[in-house]
Amino acid sequence: MGTDITLQNVWFHYYPNTQAKENWAVKDVSLTFSQGEYISIIGSNGSGKSSLACLLNGLFIPSEGKLFINGTAIDSDQDRWEMKRRVGMIFQNPDNQIVAPSVLDDIAFGMENLGVTREDMQIRIQQVLQQVGLTGFEKKEPHHLSGGQKQRLAIAGILAMQPDVILFDESTSMLDPDGRNSILQLMSELHDVGITVIHITHQASEAFRADRIIVLHQGSVMLDLPKKSLYANAAQLDQWGLDVPLSIQLHQALRKKGWQVSDKVESEEQLVSELWTLM
Amino acid sequence: MSRIVIGQFMPGNSILHRFDPRAKLLFVFLFFFLIFFVNNISTYLVIYLFVFFCIGLSQIRIRLFLGSIKPVLFIIIFTSILHLVMTKGGTILLTTPFFTVYEEGVRQAAFISSRFLILVVMASLLTFTTSSLDLTDALEQLMGPLRKIRVPVHELALMMSIALRFIPTLWEETEKIKNAQLARGANLESGNIFKRLTAYIPIFIPLFLSSFRRAEELAMAMEARAYRGGIGRTKFRLLEYKRKDYMLIVIFLLLVIGIGWLRS
Ligand SMILES: Nc1ncnc2c1ncn2[C@@H]1O[C@H](COP(=O)(O)OP(=O)(O)OP(=O)(O)O)[C@@H](O)[C@H]1O
Ligand SMILES: [Mg+2]
């Protein structure tokens, strides 16, 4: 069945009555996230990424505007609670999202909240342990896991709730390169099995793994593009305080210098083959 | 990080480890009451035999029990001395210009310290052979009926479990901050007690602040995982009474009968 999330002119602020509307955390955002997409949301510090994420899984309630799941407006607390099963969220700090004193109990936590039967829990736990590569860690205590393993445990806990969408809010930023790569790899695998992956990040190179990229700046959506259109628009990225990936910088520098590089380049591979023919 | 904390769970597979935690908890609880009916040498002998039998069954080294007695040793010695010099009765064993020791005083001192020792050893037996998670579960279930009078049993159990989850994390963090302050020239080891306490302020303040941040983030993460209190919640951890758990009732009754018969 799946989960499509639609935001319609959504505004949000932590203290709505005390702030002028131009300072709100999320300003007039209208977006649709369809089942199975792989999306990155990038933006500088304080651009409203986390606030947007919390709106998407029902942790926050829009101050203005509406949120729809599969076309149905989300209004009641019950709706928002049900939304949390559909939309899982992985946070930045690996330590502060593990609730229970052992791997098994932590994976069970979300399922317990949903009222899953014990028999189902056993089955799902084995499945998700395998999926995230933590089989054999059942009895481990969280503080004996590495950062990457903790994040994978958090992902397992969400997967066990069988969500349609998983939000990653800078979930790789506190990890070492190995941990980071294992999580990025896992995101791709989740996308391959049909889960909508929404990855919030600072890192342009990570963002470019997604198929669609959304740029936020001061609470508003600046760009919402499929990845292949980004080369043409990348010049704008640094005006919002974002770093432009090296290949894009190169592409633009070459064009500026008068080299005959096509402006239709859509990916790094294409750029390489363009350069190859120039040589 | 391999310090042995007093009363820390010692994983094992002895019969004592395998009893249901609720059964053990109840047994120890009732046993504590029973101790107060023990009042002569033969009943103390029965109890001592029983306790040594349990220690043997637990397959845990005696040294660890001595470790848990150490912190209360001072209280034991202190009350024993009080009883030795204060209690009157029976024949006089020793006379000094300051105090007189009577036979009854020696008896009382021996009994009181025995009582202390037995309480501590039984409590240690419980915590050595039961993981804290199991204990939490057992408490949650045994206190279940208190829900009727609005005791937030589920929340209390969850708090305990979260505390268990975060104690090692906070401990590591404390060490980190401590090292960071030492590297900045903090002096934690010398000076009088007041100086040393104030030296620890720069360690506790960052720890406090970070704990609040953790708590806030954890609350968010719990809510994101659809937590909304105890309603409609199922439990993954399952406790099941087995036949051997009912044996504990028989053993307890035997103890009661034995002591009831032998006490004076
Ligand atoms: N708990 C809060 N209370 C009040 N204001 C907040 C709170 N959290 C964020 N804000 C404000 O809301 C705005 C958007 O913050 P948000 O955390 O959504 O940004 P972000 O893009 O996730 O930033 P970062 O990259 O630092 O995580 C900022 O101006 C911030 O100061
Ligand atoms: Mg953020």
Topology:
The complex is a heterodimer of chains A (279) and B (264).
Chain A: E1 5-12, E2 26-33, E3 38-42, H1 49-56, E4 64-69, E5 72-73, H2 77-86, E6 87-90, H3 103-114, H4 118-132, H5 147-159, E7 165-169, H6 177-192, E8 196-201, H7 204-207, E9 212-217, E10 220-226, H8 230-233, H9 246-256, H10 268-278
Helix pairs in contact in A: 3-5, 4-5, 5-6
Chain B: H1 15-18, H2 21-35, H3 41-58, H4 62-86, E1 92-95, E2 100-102, H5 103-129, H6 132-142, H7 153-183, H8 193-199, H9 201-224, H10 243-262
Helix pairs in contact in B: 2-5, 2-6, 2-10, 3-5, 3-10, 4-5, 6-7, 7-9
The complex binds adenosine-5'-triphosphate and magnesium ion.
The site of magnesium ion (MG) has 4 residues of chain A, from helix 1.
Helix content of chain B: 55-70%
Global outline of chain A: globular
* Portion in beta strands of chain A: 15-25%
Bound molecules: adenosine-5'-triphosphate, magnesium ion
CATH fold-level topology of the largest domain in chain A: Rossmann fold
One letter per element, helices H and strands E, the order of chain B comes to: HHHHEEHHHHHH
The description of the largest β-sheet of chain A is: 6 strands, mixed
CATH superfamily of the largest domain in chain A: P-loop containing nucleotide triphosphate hydrolases
- Helix fraction of chain A, binned, reads 25-40%
The N- and C-terminal alpha carbons of chain A lie at a distance of 51 Å
Overall geometry of chain B comes to flat
Question: Tally the helices of chain B: what do you get?
Answer: 10
What characterizes the major β-sheet of chain B? 2 strands, antiparallel
Strand order of the largest sheet of chain A: 6-7-8-3-9-10
- The number of domains of chain A is 2
